[in-house]
């Protein structure tokens, strides 16, 4: 995995950069440049790759963010935006010649507007804090990544995060109403607001999921939803992952859209049960957790339908939550599955790819074959309802060659996702992890058009370089007119 070569000129003027940042962000602790303190920021959740940043700046106001970005634009210094650092794709991996711009001090909920069913928050607010703040009024914020206790809403916007309940309620992009956004030139732009839809181009949709390559979000207006009247969860155990996958397909094909539909295989079940004591069936090879919510009568009817489908597909155990405490217990194991798996392996590599639901049995079977070929075990924990896979490849980084095998195994899984009609990522983003696999999914012309969007926002490539694009072209190169066989494309069009 290669990153852009550090610019020697920038490295030589490091002290000058620190001085200028202190002038823009004078508060104590606003600028960090001591090597020991910089180590805190050397990586994000993808810990396989580490790099000390040139310097870290922690602004507290939108004006300070704008000043820092304008300075970087004008002086040629690269900048890497960073939220809580929970990204699993290396999206916040620092650059040796770049400023890491941390948004941890943007941590206030600015307004809760229940009449308009929205909240205005700063990007450093954690995902779970939004729901906690409005739970007493009977509302919540729907997207709920497993890291919701720690991940920030700004990072959720950057990666277009999902979570357990995205099957019914959508990803981050489906739950945003407005953004305040700072460009690399230091311009502050407001997109959307408290209203449902905005006129014109969907620039908010462009920014969401852009992984810090287009600018920095400094304020977010999110949609709040009323807490469902009733929510029940079913635990369904199966003798094979294929049978569980078939059940997922049958549930959705039957016109049922659960609030959440998650799957775990045997290694993940045992790890989560030992960690949380959620009451999972330890004799199952695969476990489905299906949550149904809405009016009580509707939920009871859907429980019967889902149970019938599961039994028809060979479920060997079925349990329905009796109360709210038990429902929460069912989800506690799923939410804690990633740290729980950390107890059974020295290291693991968390992948993220999405496939058509009907391909679940085939892909899970193929992953088992790959596991034998690479000699590395896999624990599967994923959003089965929308086909978003999160296989955890188990390895030991202290064993020579294990990390490289895990990376190669992960790449094969992602290639398989694309091969069966899926995509490289569902919610973790591309970052550095999947950057060099982008040509597996996109043709050169597709990547060129994506980079032209990057050029429109960041023509000098100051923002988060080395991420997402396997080869970053100069904007002037992308704008050149390609002539083939002496003929210009579309010769009938007038040219200016």
Structure report:
This protein has a seven-stranded antiparallel β-sheet, with helices on both faces. The protein has a five-stranded antiparallel β-sheet with strand order 5-6-10-8-9. It has a four-stranded mixed β-sheet with strand order 1-2-4-3, with helices on one face. It has helices at residues 8-12, 14-24, 35-38, 62-75, 127-134, 153-159, 166-169, 203-207, 241-253, 266-276, 296-312, 324-335, 337-341, 360-374, 402-419, 438-441, 444-457, 475-479; strands at residues 31-32, 55-57, 78-82, 98-102, 109-113, 118-121, 139-140, 176-182, 188-192, 216-223, 225-226, 230-238, 260-265, 286-294, 317-320, 347-350, 353-354, 378-382, 388-389, 391-395. It is α+β, with helices and mostly antiparallel strands. It has five domains: 8-102, Uridine Diphospho-n-acetylenolpyruvylglucosamine Reductase, domain 2; 109-226, Uridine Diphospho-n-acetylenolpyruvylglucosamine Reductase, domain 3, CATH 3.30.465.10; 230-339, Alpha-Beta Plaits, CATH 3.30.70; 345-435, Alpha-Beta Plaits (2-Layer Sandwich); 442-479, no CATH class. GO terms for molecular function: FAD binding; oxidoreductase activity. This is Glycolate oxidase.
């Amino acid at each position: 995995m290669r990153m852009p070569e550090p610019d020697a000129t920038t490295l030589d003027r490091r002290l000058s950069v620190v001085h200028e940042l202190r002038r823009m962000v004078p508060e104590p602790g606003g600028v960090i440049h001591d090597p020991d303190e910089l180590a805190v920021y050397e990586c994000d959740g993808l810990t396989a790759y580490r790099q000390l940043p040139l310097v870290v700046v922690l602004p507290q106001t939108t004006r300070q963010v704008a000043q820092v970005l304008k300075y970087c634009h004008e002086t040629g210094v690269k900048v890497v935006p960073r939220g809580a650092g929970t990204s699993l794709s290396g999206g916040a991996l620092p650059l040796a010649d770049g400023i890491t711009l941390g948004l941890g001090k943007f941590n206030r909920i600015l307004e809760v507007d229940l009449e308009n069913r929205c909240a205005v928050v700063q990007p450093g607010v954690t995902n779970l804090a939004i729901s906690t703040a409005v739970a007493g009024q009977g509302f919540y914020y729907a997207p709920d990544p497993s890291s919701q206790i720690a991940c920030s809403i700004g990072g959720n916007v950057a990666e277009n995060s999902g979570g357990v309940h995205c099957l019914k309620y959508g990803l981050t992009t489906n739950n945003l109403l407005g953004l305040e956004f700072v460009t690399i030139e230091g311009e502050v732009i407001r997109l959307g607001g408290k209203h449902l839809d905005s006129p014109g181009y969907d620039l908010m949709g462009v920014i969401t999921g852009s992984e810090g390559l287009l600018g920095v979000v400094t304020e977010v207006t999110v949609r709040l939803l009323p807490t469902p009247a009733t929510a029940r969860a079913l635990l369904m155990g199966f003798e094979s992952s294929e049978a569980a996958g078939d059940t997922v397909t049958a549930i959705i094909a039957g016109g049922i859209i659960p609030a959440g539909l998650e799957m775990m295989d045997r290694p993940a079940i045992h790890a989560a049960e030992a960690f949380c004591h959620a009451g999972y069936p330890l004799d199952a090879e695969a476990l489905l957790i299906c949550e149904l919510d809405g009016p009580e009568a509707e939920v009871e009817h859907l429980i019967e339908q889902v149970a019938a489908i599961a039994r028809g597909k060979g479920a060997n155990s079925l349990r329905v939550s009796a109360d709210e405490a038990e429902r929460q217990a069912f989800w506690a194991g799923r939410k804690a599955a990633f740290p729980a798996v950390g107890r059974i392996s020295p290291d693991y590599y968390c992948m993220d790819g999405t496939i058509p639901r009907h391909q679940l049995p085939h892909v899970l079977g193929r992953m088992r074959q790959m596991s034998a070929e690479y000699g590395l075990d896999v624990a599967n924990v994923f959003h089965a309802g929308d086909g978003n896979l999160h296989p955890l490849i188990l390895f030991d980084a202290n064993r020579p060659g294990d990390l490289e095998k895990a990376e190669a195994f992960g790449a094969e899984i992602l290639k398989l996702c694309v091969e069966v009609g899926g995509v490289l990522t569902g919610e973790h983003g591309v970052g550095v992890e999947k950057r060099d696999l982008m040509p597996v999914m996109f043709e050169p012309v597709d990547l060129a058009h994506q980079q032209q969007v990057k050029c429109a926002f960041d023509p000098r490539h100051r923002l988060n370089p080395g991420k997402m694009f396997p080869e970053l072209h100069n904007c002037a190169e992308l704008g050149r007119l390609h002539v083939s066989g002496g003929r210009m494309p579309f010769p009938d069009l007038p040219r200016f």
